[in-house]
């Protein structure tokens, strides 16, 4: 009789272990549903929803700004563009063989950002409102010193 009782207790304990494993699996699944991961690396902005607020799949909780690579937009005036064209005609300036222009960034404090960027976009149209052409350079920004905005 003691043997049968022990076998019954063992079966009961094994069943309880299996139930506990299932509960752990369910808890891990619930944590997975509660964890939100950004699809990109960067820095998070302010929280747009208060903690404890019920949210749906379409609610925006925050925003994430990518910092690597960092795009820097700037404008070239029509006069600067004409000067560049003239310098090219005179042979003082040449397009790189691969047509990839490297640029240096000078922040507002007049220092020179140590990393070299590369032109990744130049608008084909002159903006008559601003009198400029939009140009974009990409900087790897490995040190994260450049920030959006």
UniProtKB/TrEMBL annotation:
Pfam families: Beta-barrel_RND. Transmembrane segments: none annotated. It comes from the Bacteria. One of its GO terms (biological process) is response to antibiotic. Residues 69-149 form the Multidrug resistance protein MdtA-like beta-barrel domain. GO terms for cellular component: plasma membrane. PANTHER family: ACRA/E-RELATED COMPONENT OF DRUG EFFLUX TRANSPORTER (PTHR30158). This is Efflux RND transporter periplasmic adaptor subunit. It comes from Plesiomonas shigelloides (Aeromonas shigelloides).
